[in-house]
Amino acid sequence: MSEAREVNGAQKKAPMREVLAEAAFQLFLERGFERTTVDDIVARAGVGRRSFFRYFPSKEDAVFPDHESCLADMTAFLEAASDESDAVDVVCDAACLVLRVYSTNPEFSVQRYKLTREVPGLRTYELSVVRRYERMLAGYLRQRWVEATDGSLRAEVVAASVVAAHNNGLRSWLRSGGEGDAEDAVDRALRLVRRTWGEGGDGAAAPEPQQEDVVVMVATKGAPMWRVIQRVESALRDG
Amino acid sequence: MSEAREVNGAQKKAPMREVLAEAAFQLFLERGFERTTVDDIVARAGVGRRSFFRYFPSKEDAVFPDHESCLADMTAFLEAASDESDAVDVVCDAACLVLRVYSTNPEFSVQRYKLTREVPGLRTYELSVVRRYERMLAGYLRQRWVEATDGSLRAEVVAASVVAAHNNGLRSWLRSGGEGDAEDAVDRALRLVRRTWGEGGDGAAAPEPQQEDVVVMVATKGAPMWRVIQRVESALRDG
DNA sequence: CAACGTATGGCACTCAGTTCCCTCTGTAAA
DNA sequence: TTTACAGAGGGAACTGAGTGCCATACGTTG
User: Fold this and answer.
1) How far apart are CA A214 and CA B219, in angstroms?
2) A157 to chain B: which residues are within 8 Å by CB?
3) I need a surface site. Which of A111, B62, B113, B176 has the fewest CB within 10 A?
4) What whole-number distance in Å separates Cα of residue B176 and Cα of residue A98?
5) Rounded to two decimals, what is the model's pTM?
6) Stretch 84-123 of chain A: residues touching chain B, C-beta under 8 Å
7) Mind listing the pLDDT tens digit for each residue in A6-42?
8) For A66-205, CATH number?
9) Where in the chain is the DNA-binding region found (chains A, B) (predicted)?
10) Which positions in chain A touch B239 (Cβ < 8 Å)?
């Protein structure tokens, strides 16, 4: 709203980056993203056009001003994670960390969500951002599972699952207009992933590499059922 | 290479779309994507600048000239899919359908892969394409699972898993330079997803359709016996 | 005061993508 | 044959994002 903030009675200049992001977001809400030019933004912010591109590499970046720092936070979180804990839990927690950035400013997040939903350019941009999170999670899992068979494959699939579940929970919260508890929604969604892929899952989910625990049975059609069952039983018993 | 093809002794004009796509791809390989302007492309193709944008909405589209039709194929496939078959199997098969487009032109696919890997703009574009496949798969699963609890969540997570596994297999094949069997690589990757999310969720997999009288059954240790038997029975019955 | 690094403004340029309008060509009706 | 029409392609001019280059202003340190 105002370009300067009152702090202890002294005028303190708001950082240009925030001034620009705020001016841009206002205009995007008023006229739409595509109907707003960079010249419009810098005019409202009262700065030169060149300054915009000094702080944001593209017009789209002004819509997600905090994603770089969020990515950095996630990097730090994963680097600090203990190798003792379940790897799936770690990446789920890392995803929740992103969520917190959203849930801190519900109104802003909801408005941005609406904007992003209806502007193809912003959807694409968001995709590329989300992809970076996913790659980071996959990288962490891959490193944790270097020894496991198909570790790389599992890492990518689990990372994709975590991101999908996180986004599902997040979007359901955003669609509700930011009412209710975002962490709850995402936690509930991630529970499915934790249960399915987590190392400490209940009996349904196999721990570690499946190769060892998989039994392949070949039978011919027409074979007597009792013989089939007999073989299945013995296979499952002592593998 | 040539703008006209000899057919039955008569000159037949190659369709402009292909002429443009080929000219564009050649130039992208020679000078790189960003160092090639649309003017360069139309100059080589010997057509007017305006024509390029008649056939491709953006420069990026010229790199993926067949994705729209591939998407249409997938739509048709999903619409024609039987409600009897395992929903997860259906979407896995739909993913393999995309793979076929790649494996039909290995050299082209490998060159494009290298190009896409090193041009950020193309990576982002590809992401938006892949996202459309994912949404389509998720839509199919959601519709199949309307009754299930958390059906929507499961649909999105499974779709993301399928896409991640597919891409893992595809990329490993592309990195190998197009040697070996792409279908094999992707099948192996998708096996993890089928096993984990298939409706015989505790491990039973559908029989191989190819062989007439041999049934292969995969089960995990610890799976409840009744489910295994149920699965065997149905496999032997209508396999 | 001078010298220097940093933050910002201004200008001109490239290039993607769009708008509007033109020509050419083949076809069907009069 | 002439006319009318439709559809494919060509082309000029425009908008707007993003970049490169240089000038200017300000604060710091010598």
Assistant:
1) 6
2) 161, 164-165, 168, 192-193
3) B176
4) 35
5) 0.82
6) 123
7) 444 344 567 899 999 999 999 999 999 999 999 999 9
8) 1.10.357.10
9) 37-56
10) 221
